[in-house]
Amino acid sequence: MTPFPFPFPRTRIAFILAFAVLAFAALPPLAESVSAQETTLAGKRIDVIIGNAPGGGTDGTARLVGQYLEKYLPGKPRMNFRNMPAGHGIQAVNYFANQAKRDGTAWVAGSVSYTDANTLRKAQVEYDPRKFQFIGGVNRGGSVIMIRKDSLARLTDPTAKPVIVGTASGQDTWGELIALGRHLLGWNIRFVIGYQSAPTMSLAARRGELDAFGTSTGQLLRQTEKAGGFAYLAQIGTMRDGRVGPRQEFPDAPTGAALFEGKVQGLAREAVDVWVRSNLIDKWFALPEGTPQPMVAAYRTAFDKLFTDDEFVKAGKRQFSEDFTRQSAADVADLIANTSYPRKEVHDFLTDVKVKAGLPAEPLSEEQLAQLRKKLQGAELTVESVLDEVQNEGRAVVFKDKGERRRATVSTSGTKIEIAGKSARRNEVKAGMTCKITYTGDGAQASALVCR
């Protein structure tokens, strides 16, 4: 399927062209600038600021990109990865924006959550992402929504039983897509919040407890499809060369942009425009405001070289998905500039759509989520067993409970992990270890994994 552009008003195009002309005219003469080739970071240690805990998607992409930037930046500097997850990452980005050095020895690894309009409205935010000097970004492929085929007819029948949609926290981008479908296309849905993870939702859907769920994990989507009885309802999509299109792995699932094209006008059209663009932002990398332009150019050149390195590209696809692709600095800057600070009317429209669909306007606390999970999944149980298998660098463990094969997911932030009495990371957990696993059932996230 050929990716298609998401159209914008001619007045906006004219404004962008005029702005580009003025920006070009404001650039300093080339003779006064230092070329990127004369910039060197030889002997330097670069602080890579990461607002998430080790092991997640932001951390994983930062470490992969940083590892290969060492190879291509002039002078081959060494990277020093600094995880600063306090305040859901806001403190890290505040530090980056206001205290990090502006000489090329510090860059930040960010995600869409740091540039989300709801986040930027919080009092503790002390940065404006539009001022960052973007190096580039990566897109791992947006989430895809699966639905049971026997539920498809009910989706558009307001007199039928609602299609039950499972979600972990109610903050998923694909959940917002379904909420927009309810509001703008008349979808007949009801959300149930509190599932531990995407694998848990997949299992519940296969059992018939749920009708639909979403995830960005290609392997899980293919496994669910293989189980039979499922169809691809929609997807967030991805952006390549400024155009919105479906993921390579899932070309037949329509994007949100395609679903609403030609069906909404006025404020709704503007809100969908902002929503589509905001969800094309995945992981991005930036230098702080005030970094010399030759240094910015050196970083951008090095970043572009990563995607000509077969080893890097293969590692990205293996670690994340086949849709692991580059986003240019210009693409990232454009997406963030056009979505971070929408008009109040647009922000209120999108919030109202979520709330009316039964999703929380603001992220729920861990205590609230724990209560929902307990209500939904029942009491926890603790099993002592030898780990038969450790999957995806510790993100899931397989073991036997009363002779039955069971699987539990492991979260960096949500699972207490200990090995031989000491706190540990999930990638340190190995098959063959004897562990006590505390979880609520097959496919659920473990709240504790204590091994010896």
Work out the helicity level: 25-40%
Structural Rg: 23 Å
Low-confidence stretches: 1-37
Largest sheet: 6 strands, mixed
Portion in strands: 15-25%
> In terms of structural class, how would the helical and strand content be classed?
alpha+beta
Number of strands: 21
**Overall form:** globular
Main sheet: strand order:
2-1-3-12-4-13
- What number is the mean pLDDT? 87
Q: How far apart are the first and last residues' alpha carbons, in Å?
A: 51 Å
How large is the count of helical segments? 15
Q: Can you offer a commentary on this structure?
A:
By secondary structure, this protein is of the alpha+beta class. The strands form 6 sheets. It has a 6-stranded mixed sheet, sandwiched between helices. A 5-stranded mixed sheet has the order 14-20-21-18-19, with no helix packed on it. β10 and β11 form a beta hairpin. α2 crosses α11. The longest helix is centred in the first third of the chain and has 17 residues. The relative contact order is 0.14.
Considering the chains and any ligands shown, give keywords for the structure.
six-stranded mixed sheet; disordered N terminus; 452 residues; alpha+beta; five-stranded mixed sheet; globular
Topology:
Elements: H1 10-26, E1 45-50, H2 57-72, E2 78-83, H3 90-98, E3 106-111, H4 117-120, E4 133-139, E5 144-148, H5 152-155, E6 163-167, H6 173-185, E7 189-193, H7 198-207, E8 212-215, H8 218-227, E9 230-235, E10 238-240, E11 243-245, H9 256-260, H10 266-278, E12 283-287, H11 293-306, H12 310-319, E13 325-327, H13 329-337, H14 344-356, H15 366-377, E14 381-386, E15 389-391, E16 396-401, E17 404-409, E18 416-419, E19 422-423, E20 434-439, E21 448-451
Parallel strand pairs: 1-2, 1-3, 6-7, 18-21
Antiparallel strand pairs: 3-12, 4-12, 4-13, 5-8, 5-9, 10-11, 14-20, 15-16, 16-17, 18-19, 20-21
Helix pairs in contact: 2-11, 2-12, 6-14, 7-8, 10-14
